[in-house]
Amino acid sequence: MRLFKKKLSADSYTSLLAEKVTIFGRVTFSGTLRIEGTVDGDLIPFDNPKELKGEYAIILGATGQINANFVRCTDAIIAGALKTKKLVVHGTLRLEKTAKLTGVSIFYSQLEIEQGAYISDCHLTNIADTVKAQPQPPVAQPADK
Known about the structure:
The chain has one helix at 127-133; strands spanning 15-17, 22-24, 27-29, 31-35, 38-40, 43-45, 56-60, 65-73, 75-78, 81-95, 100-102, 105-113, 118-120, 123-126. By secondary structure, it is mainly β. It has one domain (6-128). The strands form two sheets. Strands 1, 2, 4, 5, 7, 8, 9, 10, 11, 12, 13 and 14 form a twelve-stranded parallel sheet that branches. A two-stranded parallel sheet has the order 3-6.
């Protein structure tokens, strides 16, 4: 749990995409990005590091909407509409009662779902399960003499 050491708050953010604002194309960010408008494009951490060391959180407000192929962050609060092929949250994913997720493959470390959240045609996978399922390289066997 990176950001949730202090518990991510919907009122705490470093950048804001306001209601009635739409962005088309890939969005890179750092810190906590609050979205009340619309993003039509992928959301990825700035420089897209393999290991997320730092704060790359997303707060999708109730009026916010994301339409993307790929969204990746450390932690997320989702209260709006999310339509993406793949959502990867390395920390805690919180789905609030106003959240609407459709057709999403969701990978998370910790998951919180409020009663009333709408989840349709989604596949949820704990990241720890995907690490365990990774094929291991074959062990070298001693040669017969």
